[in-house]
Design goal:
Distance between the termini: 73 Å
CATH architecture of the largest domain: Roll
CATH class of the largest domain: Alpha Beta
CATH topology of the largest domain: Ribosomal Protein L9, domain 2
Number of strands: 8
Shape: elongated
Helix content: 25-40%
Largest sheet: 3 strands, antiparallel
Number of domains: 2
């Protein structure tokens, strides 16, 4: 049976490809899970419509990510940490801490989007990249300062 894949399937093919599979596999696995459509003229039309919708959604998400990046590039956060007499930091500033600081300033950023090779363990100013979309990245300044008092 010929089907058109709606998404990438490992060891089978990429989204949009027309492949031949056994009828049982298509009927019992691919079609009920909406992973594939029958390779008929109506299936091809549905695939084109789905691709058009996906392209519109991708453009919208990319534009929103660019706007958010423009706003985030202007942001600066201050993380107050406990430090000893020789300015040695107790603990560290993690991506979760940075996400919480950004939430306090009105930005809802997932901590997994914050690209932090390792937690910040020293006082200073850091420029932290935030991956908002596949090719859209913002940079936020994070000030790690000693907590007063």
């Amino acid at each position: 049976m010929d089907v058109i894949l709606m998404e990438d399937v490992e060891n089978l093919g990429k989204r949009g490809e027309k492949i031949t599979v056994k009828k049982g596999f298509a009927r019992n696995f691919l079609l009920p899970r909406k992973i594939a459509l029958p390779a008929t003229s109506s299936g091809a039309r549905m695939m084109k419509e789905e691709e058009r919708r996906r392209a519109v959604r991708e453009v919208k998400m990319h534009r929103e990510a660019q706007e958010l990046a423009g706003d985030l590039n202007k942001v600066s956060c201050t993380a107050e940490v406990q430090a000893g007499e020789d300015d040695r930091v107790f603990g560290a500033v993690t991506s979760a801490d940075i996400a919480e600081l950004l939430t306090g300033q009105g930005f809802d950023i997932d901590k997994r989007k914050i690209v932090l090779d390792e937690p910040l363990k020293a006082l200073g100013v850091y420029t932290i990249p935030i991956r908002l979309y596949s090719d859209v990245e913002a940079k936020v300044k994070v000030w790690v300062v000693k907590k007063s008092g």
